[in-house]
Amino acid sequence: MKQKQTGIFVCMVIAASCFQYCAKNADTVAVKTGTTQATTNTAATGPQLPATVYNYAGIVVPAYILAALTANDNTPSANPVTNDGATLGRVLFYDKNLSRNNTVSCGSCHKQDLSFSDSAVKSKGFLGGSTDRHSMRLLNVRYYKSGKMFWDERAATLEDQVLQPIQNTTEMGMTLPELVTKISALNYYPVLFQKAFGSTEISSDKISRALAQFVRSIVTYQSKYDLVKQGMAGFTADERDGETLFLTAGNITCAGCHTPPMFLTSSPTAPFALNDPNDLGINNQRRFKSGSLRNIAAVGPYFHNGSISSLQNMLASNIPQHGVAVRDQQKLLAFLNTLTDNTSISDVKYSDPFR
Ligand code: HEC
Ligand code: HEC
Predict the structure, then answer these.
(1) pLDDT, tens digit, for every residue of 59-88?
(2) What are the pLDDT digits (tens) for 153-207?
(3) Centre of ligand 2 from the C-alpha of residue 199, in Å
(4) Coil, strand or helix: which one is 249?
């Protein structure tokens, strides 16, 4: 019985991968022959969604996080996270139909198991071209108080940001009218828009709001650090010394720019000088945003250009504020490791529903 089931499963996997392969080839042909029109992947099968929606709106973070961060939440009153809105956002996030030739989704460059970032220094867009900067982790984005997005903060809000990769000529290559036409032609969307926004009508504004809701729902609060802060676990000696260094060492401490509990502040100080003549960041002032340092040890490379391959290399470097004495490196590393939360990044509610 068990063997038979396995057999059926294997056949299904083979059939599914052939299907994917064929679909992919068809797309490639369309691009090679110079099709300028965005074509909907009519062979697309719909997403697998749960009968009862997952909980995105009512995530209960520990009290010490809530106390520190309620005032930092960048959720606009016009776009609160709802379970149906974030569900639609999840489907859009993983739908390759958002790219011109149906090859790339948001999830291609923001991979769940990599804390919604990419292990590549630069990610590949829909025609194989490279992004200008390293992909960013999408954790605790809602707690970046100013709400400004990208390494250089060029997007004023998350709602503005999420439409930019779709229109970026390297990343997804669409126009907003093409996007709306394409999404409207897919049979699984009307019901999802109906549930999320009370109408089957599809617009780029609703697409933006749903994507922003999904991204805001991604929060991490189940690391060893969190257990320690709630008195449910203890630091090792190195971890504890590392925390003390993080909070107190240097003229401006690590915590001054990466403030607990989300290891995030939204006022990047100037000048922040990782020497990069090709990229001067915010207002060309050698300033850059840093995202939440949670899960930082779980995925590299690091910095806006992905030039730092490991945390060890960063701590041993001469980058201002980031290179530290040899005797402190191991301790800081031990502490940074306690920020890893594997629960959130393996939670099915954030996973690809098209798999
Ligand atoms: C081809 C790769 C690629 C694709 C596709 C892509 N991104 Fe990104 N994403 C990046 C890169 C690279 C950056 C940093 C770019 C910069 O700062 O100039 C980024 C930055 C972001 C940020 C900013 C995070 C912060 O803290 O400031 C958000 C949010 C984001 N992406 C969401 C999305 C969403 C939603 C989609 C799909 C609509 C998407 N991305 C598609 C590569 C990609
Ligand atoms: C003056 C503010 C400031 C101080 C102090 C500071 N950082 Fe940073 N940190 C930043 C900024 C800004 C970035 C992103 C810079 C970039 O990409 O060019 C960053 C990047 C990082 C990164 C890589 C993040 C990523 O997403 O790739 C790590 C890890 C890090 N810092 C840890 C530390 C540690 C540990 C300390 C203390 C030893 C520290 N920082 C001190 C501002 C600061």
Answers:
(1) 999 999 999 888 999 999 999 999 999 999
(2) 999 999 999 999 999 999 999 999 999 999 999 999 999 999 999 999 999 999 9
(3) 44
(4) coil
For ligand 1, pick from 138, 183, 213, 263 the residue to mutate: most ligand atoms within 8 Å of CB. Answer: 138
Give the CATH fold of the 39-64+71-220+345-350 domain: Cytochrome Bc1 Complex; Chain D, domain 2 (1.10.760)
Residues of the chain with CATH 1.10.760.10: 39-64+71-220+345-350, 224-342
Model confidence pLDDT, tens digit, residues 29-51: 333 333 456 766 655 689 999 99
Closest ligand to the CA of 176 = 1
* CATH superfamily, region 224-342: Cytochrome c-like domain (1.10.760.10)
pTM above 0.85, yes or no: yes
How far from each other are the two terminal CA atoms of the chain, in whole angstroms? 25
Ligand nearest to the CA of 316: 2
DSSP 31-96: HHTT--S----TTPPPP---SS---STT----HHHHHHHGGG----TTS---HHHHHHHHHHHH-G
